[in-house]
Amino acid sequence: MDIAQLQAYGYFALTAVLVIILYSYIFHLYRAKKDADGVDYEKYGNMALNDDIDDAPVSPVSNDKEK
Amino acid sequence: MVKGPLEYDYTVAKMFMFTTVVLGIVGMLIGVILAFQLAFPQINLLLGEGLAEYTNFSRLRPLHTDAVIFGFTLSGVFATWYYVGQRVLKVSMAESPLLMFLGKLHFWLYVATVAAAVISLFAGITTSKEYAEFEWPIDIAIVILWVVWGIGMFGLIGIRREKSLYISVWYYIATFLGVAMLYLFNNMEVPTMFATSAAGESGIGDWYHSVSMYAGTNDALVQWWYGHNAVAFGFTVPIVAMIYYFLPKESGQAIYSYKLSLLSFWGLMFVYLWAGGHHLLYSTVPDWMQTMASIFSVILILPSWGSAINMLLTMKGEWQQVAASPLIKFMVLGSTFYMFSTLEGPIQAIKSVNAIAHFTDWIVGHVHDGVLGWVGFMIMAALFHMAPRVFKRELYSKSLMAVQFWIQTLGVVLYFTSMWIAGITQGMMWRAHDEFGNLAYSFIDTVTVLHPYYAIRGIGGLLYLTGFLMFAYNIYKTMTSRPVEEHELQNASPMGA
Fold first, then answer.
1. Fewer CB atoms inside 10 A, N or C side of chain A?
2. For residue A29, what is the nearest residue in chain B, using CA coordinates?
């Protein structure tokens, strides 16, 4: 096996590994739903739907200040 | 002061809705005139020999582009910001007299600046930099009105009740910062009155004249870094901001994936700024820079499609709404055109494709499938969604809206298909040569061949303008003649007739 052939196998293997890592990370994100800090990002989508002035904020500023 | 229950205050949003419609009509009307001038040159003398100075193609062209970019689109961006901003931050402009004052000041400064820009461009006063034609006094006015908008924007964010910023707000902030940076750097110019010629003359030219601070290739590079990112931060980023709010709201479906929206946002921010060099392929710009621009342009498909697919997936399980509601049709076709033109752009930025496409009508076709199909459709959809809520009235006519949708869709299709054929024909004819390298065609040969496509393009533009006039009429009638809605509107906009 010459060097070019080795490079080609190596290139293919690297691409496959990167694809597997990327997709398993995406799968992990969706299964866990929450990030490392325990925040579920998908709840933020409700900021557009519940946007009347009397609707309860998804994460109110005042709660933050009380902490 | 009467203290009623707290409500969102749409005064400034309504003002900018008005300029969106008016400047849209102006910009598109001039566009249609230009299209027919290219097909039938005698239209250059539309108002006779005496006024030919004001009606010829070259005088009108910057008025078309600037009216559509800085008139129609920017007004739409401002109108939707003053609507969406309050709602997703859950704070009313009525709560802060200062923000209300800044909003109105923003509007009136904008109107004054637009008036100055229109007059100066009609008079033929220009820096001759594309999409940056305004001379330094107008540039200064633009900087001031932009800063006023920014103070208002960050002021509203500062008094918000919602701690997190909705994805649309991210995009509006990016629009503000992106345009600020681009505009400042590309419009660095020296008024000629400060210059001294080699022969020692000083105070050259009129007081308002200026020359760019950059020279030659550097000027071209800064210009196209600006020019391409004017597309990014004027035609893409704020329009994505709109669709991320209006499509979920109108359909009652939360965004398919909020995470994907964040990923696409940062992808777009990182990649877009490097792609401008694709306007300068095969020019005196260093070769590595051209290659880099090509590569970044191709990578740009990822974040663009990330947003567009997110929009289409938001409709998952709710596709019957596309059939039922003309408003949803506008937005779904808008995001489809977004996918389509963000695939077409990268293809054109590939060097070998660019060798055929550059300087041809294909580029013009590309710009227009993006602007007519994506920007125009999305801004009209946003205004249709806002109208029943800001005027507290049912939309005047659903059937008029549906007819408008099909007329304009046909218009866009005629526009881009004719320009594809014209552009590729042109590109192939320009480079055709015999075995000795002699060019096979002269320029006029291409003009003769392209004539029918130019006529079709004019008709496509005319159809789109007709649809826009129907839109303006529908909004006007909504304001004036529909019964008042008492209840707070949730999702789907109520439509009559």
1. C
2. B259
Assembly ipTM? 0.81
Residue B413 lies in a domain: yes
B261 class by beta-carbon count within 10 Å (0-12 exposed, 13-18 middle, 19+ buried): buried
Residues of B with CB under 8 A from a CB of A: 6-8, 87-88, 90, 92, 160-164, 166-168, 244-245, 248-249, 252, 254-255, 257-259, 262, 488, 491
The per-residue pLDDT for range B401-447, each reduced to its tens digit, is 999 999 999 999 999 999 999 999 999 999 999 999 999 999 999 99
Chain A 1-60, residues with CB within 8 Å of chain B CB atoms:
29, 41-49, 51-55, 57-60
Q: Which residue among A45, A57, A63 places its CB closest to the CB of B258?
A: A45
Are B185 and B209 in contact by the 8 Å Cβ rule? The answer is: no
* More confidently predicted of B11 and B231: B11
Residue B148 has pLDDT above 80, yes or no: yes
Q: Is B454 within a domain?
A: yes
Nearest to B227 by CA among B338, B129, B144: B129
Confidence of residue A66 (pLDDT cuts 50, 70, 90): very low
Residue B181 amino acid letter:
M
Give the residue numbers spanning the domain of B403.
382-491
The total number of residues written for chain A in this structure: 67
- The residues, ordered by sequence, that sit 6+ positions from B331 with a Cβ below 8 Å of its Cβ are B243, B246, B247, B250, B311, B377, B378, B381
Q: Which of A44, A53, A58 sits opposite B6 (nearest CB)?
A: A53
Per the CB < 8 A criterion, the answer to whether B152 and B106 are in contact is: yes
Q: Which two tokens stand for residue B178?
A: 């992106």
Rounded to two decimals, what is the model's pTM? 0.92
Q: What is the pLDDT of residues B305-341, one digit of tens each?
A: 999 999 999 999 999 999 999 999 999 999 999 999 9
Tell me the chain B residues in contact with residue A54 when contact means C-beta distances shorter than 8 Å.
6
Is the pLDDT confidence value at B292 over 60? yes
b/e code B444-476 from CB counts within 10 Å (16+ = b)? eebeeebeebbbbbbbbbbbbbbbbbbbbebbe
Question: Does the residue B181 lie in any domain?
Answer: no
